[in-house]
Each structure stands twice: as C-alpha cells, then as structure tokens.
TrEMBL record:
It is found in: Cell membrane. Residues 1-32 are annotated as: Disordered. It is a multi-pass membrane protein. Its main location: membrane. It comes from Cupriavidus pauculus. This is ATP synthase subunit I. InterPro entries: ATP_synth_I (IPR005598).
Length: 168
C-alpha cells in the first residue's frame, strides 16, 4: 500500500504495493522531528514538570529499608509465632532492598554516562538477584513463614510509589 504524501490516502493500484510493509514509513519518506524548545515544553507540560525530581534511587532504597525494619518489628510483636514471623518479614524485605541497593549503586556509578543498555542490564541483574535471594531464603531458613515474607516484600517493593508521592 502506498500512502499519498499530501492526502494520506491509500492507493492500492500498484500490484507490487501488496508486498510492501505498511508500517515502513522510512521507505516512503524521512520525516524530520524537531525537539521542543524550553518555552514550548513549559507551555505544553507546565513549569512544575520541567523541574528536576528530588527523588533519588538512594532515597527509595533507604525508604525500603525503613519499611522492611518496621514491618519486621510489627510481625515480631504482633504475630502468633513472633520469632519466625519477624525474621521471615525481615528476609522478605531484604530480598527487595539488596537488589534495589545494588541497582541504585550502579546508577550512581554510571551517572556521568548513563545509557539505556546500562539501565536494562541493571534491571535484569536486579530481577535475577531477587529470584536468587528468594531461593536462598526458602532453602536456608527452615522456619520460614510465607505470609510475613511476601507481605513485607510487597510493602518494600511498593515503597517507591509512597516516596514518589511524598517527595513530588
């Protein structure tokens, strides 16, 4: 299919057009994309959106550690089996905090030259480290209580949103 450049109409008169990729815009024309100026971005997004965020990965990891400790203490005080529940909660939070801390450290080390590939690699390492730590906790801690571990893991994991809302 060939698109008429001025009209945007589809012309199927050419039999060779049925083999052309309709998503391949580069084959027909190259379009120049101009970035927004600062004034245009402010007009479009507002002045507040243009300010840099005060939230840092280090603050998120610190908040995750605090949530982990508070949850572990709460499970240790209020659970029926206090010791195993408290430790299970602590290990569940650690499964979240340790990979997040490593990822934040990688971001800090690469702050001079950040790349998309570095972010993707860091996130992949974070995911595999989380899985590995879950396996280590399940295998090594015999008194594991699943509910405190998973609840604390999820609380620590979602702490990012609480920090984002509080800081922004």
């Amino acid at each position: 299919m060939v698109r008429d450049r001025q009209q945007g109409n589809v012309n199927a008169a050419d039999p060779a057009d049925k083999f052309r990729d309709p998503w391949d815009d580069d084959a027909e024309r190259e379009e120049q994309v101009d970035p927004l100026s600062h004034a245009e971005a402010v007009k479009l997004l507002g002045e507040r959106a243009m300010r840099p965020s005060r939230m840092t990965p280090g603050k998120v990891v610190l908040a995750q550690a605090v949530v982990t400790l508070l949850s572990a203490i709460a499970w240790a005080i209020f659970a029926r089996e206090q010791g195993p529940s408290g430790w299970s909660a602590f290990f569940g939070g650690a499964v979240c905090v340790i990979p997040s801390g490593f990822f934040a450290f990688r971001l800090w080390m690469a702050r001079a030259r950040p790349t998309v590939g570095g972010l993707v690699a860091g996130e992949a390492i974070k995911i595999f480290a989380t899985i590995a730590l879950f396996v280590v906790v399940v295998v090594l801690y015999r008194d594991l209580r699943w509910v405190p571990m998973l609840v604390t893991f999820l609380l620590a994991l979602k702490t990012y949103w609480v920090v984002a809302l509080a800081v922004r």
